[in-house]
Amino acid sequence: MNKNSLPTLYWDNNCLYLLDQRYLPEKTEYRCCKSYQDAVDSIREMSVRGAPAIGITAAYGMAAAAYEAVANNYNPAEMKDILQQAANTLIKARPTAVNLFWAVRRIENVFDQMQDAHQEEIFERLLQEAKAIHEEDINNNRMIGANGSELIPPKASILTHCNAGALATGGYGTALGVIRTAVEEGKDIHVFIDETRPLLQGSRITAYELYHDDISATLITDSMAGYLMSRKMVDLVVVGADRIAANGDTANKIGTYTLAVLADHHEIPFYVAAPISTIDIDVDSGDNIKIEERCATEITHFSGMAIAPEGITVFNPAFDITPARLITAIITERGVVCKPEREKIEKLFN
After folding, report:
1. How many domains are contained in the chain?
2. Measured torsion, CA atoms of residues 193, 194, 196, 199, in degrees rounded to the nearest 10
3. CA torsion, points 314, 316, 322, 323, in degrees to nearest 10?
4. Helix, strand, coil: what percent of the chain each, to 5?
5. Which residue, of 89, 108, 141, is where some domain finishes?
6. In whole angstroms, what is the distance from residue 23 CA to residue 213 CA?
7. What pLDDT band is residue 6 in, cutting at 50, 70 and 90?
8. SS (H, E, C) 183-215
9. Dihedral angle of Cα 244, 343, 103, 108, to the nearest 10 degrees
10. What is the pLDDT of residue 252?
């Protein structure tokens, strides 16, 4: 978002502050996480969401665990125990977004290299690493935006799904980073925003971001996308990702696969924008990505009010898998992978 907008998260006075996105756009409220368990709860309850933002939160959560050890004068063995406990709990908070695992492992690697250091020194170093992960994400998003903007024509109507903006990342955004860069470069851009049921991240959060950035946008229901494409009102689709398999299969918010099928049918480019930390090179294909299933009340209730018969059976997967063959290109900070496949994706890591 623009320079006057609110940060997604920040560390201050030994506390991680998260913009509680459950209340947007009605209320702006920050949640203070003083412990790693607070960070876990924030991830599980979706106060913070979006794969990069979840990863950054987990990194700060590990720092919070180290601070707890310092504040309670833990000995080295006790500090190691609480960091291990924090790591194990954080990586279980949500199972699909790989950035969560990546960030925790990165903090653990730093700790492994300095276990003989004083506890306060360890805390400061882990906090420094968490801040580095945060800053790197913002820089990577801007590079994703620059790389992706090259694919955007001078005038374009872009459809996006869920929220892959500043509020899903450390700042600026992945899919919305591409859109923001195109607008900053003077391109004539209009964005169609899927509402993104059941939690309405599109209407509540993406619309919030684009409205406050004065980017031309129109909100639609999820089921309208095919109609817009059939009327030639969409030039391209750009979405984010929660995990990308080594072959390019992509897990993203439920409904993404539907858009990819529609885009393929209408011969519309379908782009995925994500940092390479979202690529899980150890997962061969989308068949091996665990899909999180969330509680029934996200579908049966709205704002606390029942909108379905009590006792109705509910199936609520949070994500779906878009096969690589439906993806025109994956846009990363290290470049664009057209017609993604394993060999091309592996070159990003060389």
Report:
1. 2
2. 40
3. -60
4. 45, 20, 35
5. 141
6. 19
7. confident
8. HHCCCEEEEEEECCCCCCHHHHHHHHHHHHCCC
9. 140
10. 97
Residue in 193, 211, 240, 319 with CA at minimum distance from that of residue 50: 240
287 is catalytic: no
Give me the helices (H) in 96-206, please.
98-112, 119-149, 175-184, 201
Residue 3 lies in a domain: no
Cα torsion 216, 253, 340, 244: sign: positive
Q: Whose structure tokens read 């409220």?
A: 29
Residues 103 and 181 in one domain: no
Residues 273 and 345 in one domain: yes
Which entry of 213, 242, 249, 280 is annotated as an active-site residue?
A: 242
Confidence at residue 304, expressed as pLDDT on a 0 to 100 scale: 87
Residue bearing the bigger pLDDT, 55 or 303: 55
- Judged against a pLDDT cut of 50, whether residue 129 lies above it is answered with yes
What is the reported pLDDT for 5? 64
Per-residue pLDDT reduced to its tens digit, 248-267? 999 999 999 999 999 999 99
Shared domain for 69 and 171, answered yes or no, is no
Q: Token pair for residue 313?
A: 């059976």
Q: Is the pLDDT of residue 4 over 70?
A: no
